[in-house]
Amino acid sequence: MAELLNFVLLFAVIGLAAVASLGEKRPGWRAAAYAGVAMVGLGAVGLALVYLLLAAMQRMAPQTLSPDLARTLAALRPLRVGLGLLAGGFVSWLVLLPPVRRAVAHVLPIRPESVVNAMALSLLVLLWAQSVGLSGLGPQGFLDLSGPLSTAQVVLGEVPLAILGMVAVGLFTRRTPAETWERLGLTGLSRRQVALSVAGAAALVAFEVGFNWVAGRLAPGAFDELNRATNALYGNVNNVAAAAAIAVASGVAEEILFRGALQPRLGLVPTALSFGVMHLQYGVTWALLSVGLIGLVLGIYRQRVNTSACIVVHALYNLAIFLLP
Questions:
Q1: 122 and 160 share a domain?
Q2: What are the Cα distances from residue 68, in Å, to 8, 65, 135, 261?
Q3: Looking at CB atoms within 10 Å, which of 95, 158, 200, 203 has the fewest?
Q4: pLDDT tens digits, residue range 174-190?
Q5: 231 CB contacts (<8 Å, ≥6 apart)?
Q6: How many angstroms separate the CA atoms of 275 and 257, rounded?
Q7: What is the dihedral of CA 75, 283, 145, 253, to 10 degrees?
Q8: Which backbone phi and psi does 104 adopt, to 5 degrees?
Q9: Do 12 and 138 belong to one domain?
Q10: Using CA atoms, how far apart are residues 103 and 95, in angstroms rounded to an integer?
Q11: What is the mean pLDDT of residues 129-152?
């Protein structure tokens, strides 16, 4: 049920991105986009109040909770989630104000007059808020809530991210398909660029192996917990075809959204941070540092080559990490 809700929400955001794109040149659509984004923030605030109510019940009247709900709340830490969403909802409204965006434009390469940029900032604030709120789960807590993932679940979960990236930059609303691919950096690769991408993936895999070796000695308990949870989470991905499907899907979708759509507007470091924050549901662990550094490397490939190179690096890296164990 939770997965279906997330899927519906993602496609609602895609619809909102299309409205915002139309609003770049049409005042009526612009007003509708701002209203829609404000409603998303209102939904976050409403959900925050629900979590805060559950946290109060957990503390003051635990006997009123069913055993299953009590166990879920113990792992979820509703007070943290509620406060995170509450703060995120209010900040997501603040960035809709033109003076706030003009101030942000001194730090990030956004266009403060753009309704699409306003939408992106507002939704990123909510992503950060949700991820920080869920960061208390830890790897095992996340596994307990989600259960093992199938290949289809992972692949289908990535598809909306790619669609969101394409719609947000104006596919069929402000840009033709060819113009969209160019804006996203989805252009061809020379043989030299392919070789550089393969080399980059190999370097990232070597880095990950070395990083894991160090982390396993500095924090063996956290390392073992993350390994056990990750192996259980992707336990159904037990053949090369499944691993390849997930590697390609995540590489394509995440790079289209983060490096293709977001990085030209947010810049290298904020995009890499947002990419890392997306993985905070696993907890604030050593793995977060690894993901952040990988995001920086992928961002450099976007700057120096294009998003197509990022996809090759990301997909090959993911495939190798799946197959190495």
A1: no
A2: 25, 8, 21, 41
A3: 203
A4: 999 999 999 999 999 99
A5: 325
A6: 10
A7: 160
A8: -65, -35
A9: yes
A10: 10
A11: 76
Domain boundary among 113, 146, 179: 146
Please give the Cα distance from 123 to 91 (Å, whole number): 10
pLDDT for the residue 76: 79
Please check the confidence at residue 1 and state whether its pLDDT lies above 70: no
The structure tokens listed for 113 are: 């007059």
pLDDT, greater one: 37 or 290:
37
Range list of H helices, the chain: 2-22, 27-60, 67-76, 78-94, 98-104, 115-134, 138-146, 151-168, 177-184, 191-218, 220-233, 240-254, 263-266, 268-277, 286-304, 307-323
DSSP state of 149: P
| DSSP codes joined into one string, 33-57 | HHHHHHHHHHHHHHHHHHHHHHHHH
Tokens 């691919």, located at residue: 181
Asked whether residue 174 falls in the same domain as residue 321, the answer is yes
Q: How many domains does the chain have?
A: 2
Mean pLDDT of the chain: 90
pLDDT digits (tens, 9 = 90+) for 207-230: 999 988 988 888 788 778 777 877
β-bridge partners, 171: 175
Q: Which amino acid is at 151?
A: T
Q: Specify whether the CB–CB gap between 76 and 50 falls below 8 A.
A: no
| 13 and 122 share one domain | yes
Report how far residue 295's alpha carbon sits from residue 316's, in angstroms, rounded to the nearest whole number: 15
pLDDT mean over 281-310: 86
Which residue range is the domain that position 231 belongs to?
A: 148-325
**CB neighbour list of residue 138: distance below 8 Å, 6 or more residues apart:** 225, 282, 283, 285
Identify the domain boundary among 95, 117, 146.
146
**215 in the same domain as 314:** yes
- Domain identity same for 118 and 84: yes
Same domain assignment for residues 284 and 165: yes
* Same-domain pairing of 135 and 170: no
